[in-house]
């Protein structure tokens, strides 16, 4: 399966966090390279191309971003191996000196969850203004849009005016969806659902709807092929489309447009960005075992992991290197 559209979910998880600040939101420029929207629906592991440092880096950046992906570079290879060895001991939950696919999967899910909740904790104090351990819609609105709401004339003739006008009701709609008890305040769990809707089943419709609204430029309630491509790629100059764009057009026709009517409806968008038969943690765990299991016994020794340390440092199993910069007692 082509790599187009792989980290839409990451965009929700990280993009919103980057946008959350007390200053007004800025309108992002359209990318000139591929913009991706779905967690990687990779091909079968046995069909993957041989890994090298560049492809490790792709996995690394696709799930964390370029800046944080550099974290593991702060350590020497020997330091990385030493700390990775301590992490291996923690992954081996039954203490049998082997790491199985299931143990890796469990560890990866733990790291994913910790990353999400750590990020919520970092921004919590900016929005919980009355320190009651809840965030009301009014608190969030004032923290995020207060300056705009108080000084509308400053934005009247700017592109930011359209952005704020669009994003405020959109954020309110998402907040209400996350607020399960309807009291207009968010607990930590509800605020986590607000910031990371892709992680919560009851928020999946919001993810689909926001994706549709982002891409559907003509407002007909569907995503046609040109809109699909324009979301990933824009021509800076008139010229031929790159090969990957042509491949994405084929993907649209063959795999995205399920009913072959030339456009994507909500169900087809859901199938695209939220594939039901794909478990990232399972796929990542299987991939790590497949690439590192020298004796093909379907489990890994510490020695096999350390021999292939560069893959694990760049893997979600070590939170893309973040765990390697922490002391053992912090893990």
UniProtKB/TrEMBL annotation:
What SMART domains has UniProt attached to this entry?
EFh (SM00054)
Q: Which domain of life is it from?
A: Eukaryota
| UniProt family annotation | Belongs to the CREC family.
**Where is the stretch described as Disordered?**
32-56
What job does this protein perform?
May regulate calcium-dependent activities in the endoplasmic reticulum lumen or post-ER compartment.
Native organism is: Enhydra lutris kenyoni
Q: Which GO terms describe its molecular function?
A: calcium ion binding
* Protein keywords: Calcium, Endoplasmic reticulum, Glycoprotein, Metal-binding, Phosphoprotein, Repeat, Signal
Q: Does the keyword Repeat apply?
A: yes
Q: Which residues form the EF-hand domain?
A: 79-114, 115-150, 166-201, 203-238
Official protein name in the record:
Reticulocalbin-1
Q: Which InterPro entries match?
A: EF-hand-dom_pair, EF_Hand_1_Ca_BS, EF_hand_dom, Rcn1
A family per Pfam: EF-hand_5
Please provide, in alphabetical order, the Gene Ontology terms of the cellular component aspect for this entry.
Answer: endoplasmic reticulum lumen
UniProt feature, compositional bias: Basic and acidic residues: 33-51
Q: Which CDD domains match?
A: EFh_CREC_RCN1 (cd16229)
- Location of the protein in the cell: Endoplasmic reticulum lumen
